[in-house]
Amino acid sequence: MHIHKFEKIWLILGTVTLVAFLSTIGIQAFTSPDHAPPSDLTTIEPEEVETTAPFDEPGLKKVGENEYELVMILQSFGFTPGEVEIPQGAKVKFIVTSIDVVHGFEVAGTNINMMVTPGHINSMTYTFDEKGSFLILCNEYCGIGHHYMSAELEVK
Amino acid sequence: MVHQLDSRLSMAHFYVAFAAIFVGGLFGLLQALVRSEMITLPPSMNYYQILTAHGILMAIVFTTFFIFGFMYASVARTTGSLSNMARKSGWIGFIIMTVGVILTVVMILANEATVLYTFYAPLQANPLFYIALALIIIGTYFASFAIIKQYADWRKANPGQRSPLIAFMAVATLVLWLIATIGVVIAVVFQFIPWSLGWVDEINVVLSRTLFWYFGHPLVYFWLLPAYMAWYVIVPKVIKGKIFSDSLARLAFLLFILFSIPVGFHHQLLESGISHGWKFLQVVLTFAVIVPSLMTAFALFATFEISGRARGGRGLFGWFKKLPWRDVRFFAPFAGMVIFIPAGAGGIINASNQMNQVIHNTIWVTGHFHLTVGATVAITFFGISYWLIPHLKGRVMTERVNDLGIYQTVIWVFGMLIMSGAMHFSGLLGNPRRTQVTSYNGHEVASQWGAYEVGMAVGGSFLFISLILYIILMINLSFFAPKGNEEFPIAEASENAQETPKILENWKVWIGIAFALILFAYTIPIMDMIQHSPPGSKGFKFW
Ligand code: HEM
Ligand SMILES: [Cu+2]
Ligand SMILES: [Cu+2]
After folding, report:
1. What distance in Å separates the CA atoms of residue B398 and residue B489, rounded to the nearest whole number?
2. CATH code at B403?
3. Where are the transmembrane segments (chain B) (predicted)?
4. Is the pLDDT of residue A89 over 80?
């Protein structure tokens, strides 16, 4: 098959850029664990969430020097707990699950964003360097009150 | 000339498509007005109900019916009038699809299926909604059979000859569709229907989402490839040029089949239950689709340049001015191509593994697909309809309709740039998609989004004005334009293009490679989802 000379150059340049770009993404994602998208494989019985650890005690827990775990239950149309206070500079591991339908877990204006499907636990880690009032919201349609589903996160 | 009996089949599809885009567009406008808090809906209607209808009418009904109408006409134009068997199968398909559409719309209006067009489990709609969706897909199987049969008959009657390019492209698009729909058919038939009927209690949510996205991503190429058919084969003729390379055009379509199916995980990057390594593999395969996209961009601009120079354009860019800018048959698809450049760049961002986290499920995504399907594809389809409808109805597009068509296109482009632009920017600030009100009790973070939502409403209003003009022009071209002959432009390959290699028409090879890639990308993760399946979910009806 004949390929025009300029087209060859164009395709080679394009492909080389593509390979460089994908290598960057791959190296970043696989060498630093906090850069990989949330992909927790833990399963849970959605109807027994409230009696299963750690969801039997939702909320913020200190697990180390300026390190925390925030356990949250999602349910149409709210988050438990609905208000959280976090000290500035804290590294927080979010651990979330749903007891009913699919929800989204987003802290608007940050990179904290994950899908929360029933039957699975999802998790990710984020460090809050700046003070402020953050909005946690559900970004996946979960029923008629979807737009009321939010929580407050205060970094002090 | 397309035979009259075949014209009728095409036109039936176009009427449904036009009705769908009109009603869907009205709902789209309402959504934009509600989000910006300019209006509130009457209590008998809820936001998510019209959003479900908008998604289905636009993304499923308008696109699918338009595509089949266009394909029947293209195949009849290049392979001769449809055989009786093909035509009959086409009509059966049309009837089944239409019944499916009516039933779907009835279920949505009855508020029995406010689950959005992605119908994610475990929100549970009325079983008739899933059955209706299945009917739409079954209908397309009859339609696909009609076109593939016509193509196969042509090849049998013309042994050793290269098939007409546009017919080949139609078949390639349908091969993609047939492989892709396997996923959603399995999900609907084996998961959703038994579960909604109460035959089984629980559904495997992650598996249903994976099967959905196995289909949901190639679905976007099913919309796009018919636009490419017009770009590769019809636009060159309109500008009095030639097809740059027949064989590379065929190769591009085959590569789209290979690289658009085994990539659904890039819609599930933020999901639990799928390991990181498998997601990354599909990210890499997703990006492979850039290669045929680059081939397409090269071929199209090469055609433009050659044709512009043949008209006397000189210098590095002089040819550009010589293109027929005042011809809507060229202008509209060209506008679509230009918009596809930023639209494609946005797609690269969406698919980029960790970058997805910034925009996932924000209204950025909605901005992205209004640029791709809502602008690039839709405008190219508008451009096609300006000459195809009069051609099929034995009428002509007058100078006036041509000029109004250019205005219609410009208003649509303008509206889409405002609406999608606002969606992109506010999505970056975290504004979620699919959300009726985004004030969140006046939270300071949410208050930044208001101005952009006004922008969305302004853009949406332009879009709706453009749509009204479009529908008026289509009614004119179907029933009132002067009688006559409008050309169905089909370009030929350039003389210096070489013989097309036989392997490009050996479907067994390409379908075989496609399945090998799919098995590679999906077998282990799906086995995992079944073996280590999470506890299932019962249904919920939260609306
Ligand atoms: C008059 C023109 C249009 C307007 C004003 C419009 C407006 C909108 C708006 C505001 C949304 C977002 C709703 C939300 O997320 O809360 C939306 C969603 C959507 N639009 Fe459009 N749109 C138009 C045309 C189109 C076209 C031509 C297509 C495709 C062919 C399309 C396909 C979609 C889809 C698939 C969704 C997503 C539905 C969902 O998230 O479930 N729209 N549209
Ligand atoms: Cu929710
Ligand atoms: Cu929600």
Report:
1. 17
2. 1.20.210.10
3. 12-34, 46-70, 91-109, 129-148, 168-193, 213-235, 247-265, 285-307, 328-349, 369-389, 410-429, 449-473, 509-527
4. yes
